[in-house]
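Please, structure for the following, as tokens.
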Amino acid sequence: MTKPRNSSLLQPDKFSYDYKSSRGLEKDLILEISQQKQEPAWMLNLRLEALKAFKELKLPKWSPDLNEIDFNDLYYYLLPLGKTLRSWEEVPADLRNVFQKLGIPKAEKEMLAGVGAQYDSEVIYESLRDDLASKGVIFMSMDQGLKMYPELVKEYFGSVVGPADNKFSALNSAVWSGGTFLYIPRDVHISQPLQVYFRMNYEKGGQFERSLIVVEEGSKLQFIEGCSAPAYSSNSLHAGVVEVVVKRGAQVQFTTIQNWYKNVYNLSTKRAIVGEEGLMRWIDGNLGSKLTMKYPACVLAGRKAKGEMLSISWAGEGQHQDVGAKMIHLAEETTSQIVSKSVCRNGGRNSYRGLVSIAKEANHARSKSSCDSIILDNKSRIDTYPRSRVYQSNAIVEHEAKVSRLEEEQVLYLASRGFSPNEAEKTIVNGFLEPVIKEIPMEYALEMNRLIELEMEDSIG
């Protein structure tokens, strides 16, 4: 479970770091990070190439305003501990207390098959059930994966999201640290979720985790990530990258419950490549952050591959959620579905930005997008920017979008049944979001509902 709305978690954690880089983004920093991690030459070369690409690439012209980000005034590498631990008792008490407030140790005991916890730049704790390890499942930090399985990492790292894919994936490729390396062998079904949790703590810090998930033929996986950060007046930056490889007949559900504080720019790249008859499901809960730009993607590369995206986004005062999905159909009989639900209040702004692309080779492909939004006041704003590129005449592509205001008649009806105005609003919003929330594992769905209730009460921020 995650409980990032606990008010004590909005306070910076008092902790002495084992290592902290200087601020700024130059070649010396890349050499410093790579030396600290004792990486192979190929990874250092990839980092340097990515740094060059980052400096050459411009900020996207279509994006919300990013000019407040000073890339030379951030700490790119903050090392809390010199090693990753496998017992909560070994974790220093001040750090352990943070994750206890988040409910991570309890969730590990009660409902998880494995858990990882990242604090600023490095994973400080990781565990995996013994029965899964005996089946060949690999679940560890990306840094450990690079050390222990260098050839496997080299085969897939950057194969889904290249170092120069976009400006922020280039930044991640240059300075990445932490994240998850997860490998599921053939025909292994993991019935309980694996979870990682990311905590940003340092003022003017950045978090740039890199996650690589490879799921072999016929396997099944549920993966959950959560995140939080304390309250600061200055801006912080999160620019993670997730690469998922879904082999033939495999099924992956990747759930994100994002709840950064409102000084965080969240500029993440998430993408999966899906093989024949495979299924990739993104479930995204976007609360918190100053600005989020995130468009999880499925590249449907094999016949009858399926991609799904179900998302919730909430924007309050001073927030802009610019989120959506990309479905790229490259093979015949591929199908995709996008369901986007967004809510705005107190002058917040939500933007849906989506792409559906049907290649000429994608015979009988089918895609459906549904974007529904509710505005709870007269100050907020919702925009929808769908794009469809269809190069096959027998494809079926559907898109529908609806924006509505909170209906006074609904509130009055519920008031006549004994609901207060605030309870009526909560009931209507929860009913609106329910089609997505019901797809989240139950314990996390309860937490998501609680977070939404807190937003409705204006109790945070």
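The two ends are 22 Å apart (CA to CA). Residues 7-294 form one domain.
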